[in-house]
Specification:
Elements lengths: L6 E10 L5 E9 L1 E7 L2 E7 L9 E8 L3 E6 L4 H7 L3 E7 L2 E10 L6 E2 L10 E4 L2 E2 L6 E4 L4 E4 L9 E9 L2 E7 L6 E11 L5 E13 L13 E7 L9 E5 L3
Antiparallel strand pairs: 1-2, 1-16, 3-6, 4-5, 6-18, 7-15, 8-14, 9-13, 10-11, 10-14, 12-13, 16-17, 17-18, 17-19
């Protein structure tokens, strides 16, 4: 039977609060490109100053350093994006509604103006005084963002006051409020198989204080991925900051 290690596994994350207590939402399994554990120690050396042995080590004591955890993943639900952006997740629950003759002043150039609402339906009506203006001729409207701007050569070429009427749909989903957290405390754990010998494997990192190590490129041409790094902490009641198990069955 082979003693090599090549793992395939399901990795889960439990976000902890500032006191190291679970926030109650376990995410996973997460498609992970890297989950690396680096253990090292610091040498404390007592050197000789004696005539015949100056500079030689009389004592060399190794003191463990915190284990460094590196985690890279490309599954990107809102909760994981929040980790990569040092943020937190909030629910979006915007109600539907109607604008009736809302007054807006457009500039004398083709810059966008916000209407204050988003996710409009296609029933938008724009008027200047009592005259109904033509979409794509006199003005351009962004329904998703609720933006309006004039079109050069149209009736609103010089800008001015208009009224806008129309309906907007409800919006629901997740909002990531970025850069609100200085660190993320995570419990990482999982199960899988050593493909070299078929044995089941489990592991757990009880509490790792982590932060992003690379930018999150939202305009890239590849799938968005994220990377976090930090130290595994020794939690109360445990002798070790993490464990890895290889099972016989």
């Amino acid at each position: 039977m082979s003693d090599g290690i090549l793992l395939a596994g399901n990795i889960f994350v439990d976000r902890l609060n500032e006191q190291g207590v679970s926030t109650g939402q376990i995410i996973g399994p997460i498609n992970t490109q890297k989950l690396a554990i680096k253990t090292e120690a610091e040498s404390k050396v007592r050197t000789s100053n004696k005539k015949d042995s100056k500079g030689q080590a009389l004592d060399d004591v190794k003191i463990p350093k915190p284990a460094v955890i590196t985690w890279e993943f490309d599954d990107q639900p809102a909760e994981l994006i929040a980790l990569a952006l040092m943020g937190e997740v909030a629910d979006i629950n915007d109600a539907a509604g109607v604008l009736a003759d809302q007054a807006i002043v457009l500039p004398n150039h083709q810059g966008w103006v916000e209407t204050g609402r988003k996710n409009f339906t296609d029933d938008v009506v724009v008027k200047q005084a009592t005259v109904t203006l033509a979409a794509s001729v006199d003005y351009e409207f962004n329904f998703a963002l609720g933006l309006i701007r004039t079109i050069k050569g149209g009736a609103l070429n010089a800008g001015g006051s208009i009224t806008l009427s129309g309906s907007y749909n409800a919006r629901s989903g997740k909002r990531i409020n970025g850069a609100t957290k200085s660190q993320s405390r995570l419990r990482l754990f999982g199960e899988g198989k050593n493909l070299a010998n078929g044995k089941p494997v489990t592991f757990e990192i009880y509490d790792a204080s982590m932060m992003p190590t690379k930018e999150l490129d939202l305009a890239g041409s590849e799938f968005v991925s994220a990377a976090l790094e930090g130290n595994a902490k020794l939690v109360q009641g445990k002798r070790e900051p993490f464990y890895i198990e290889e099972l016989e069955a």
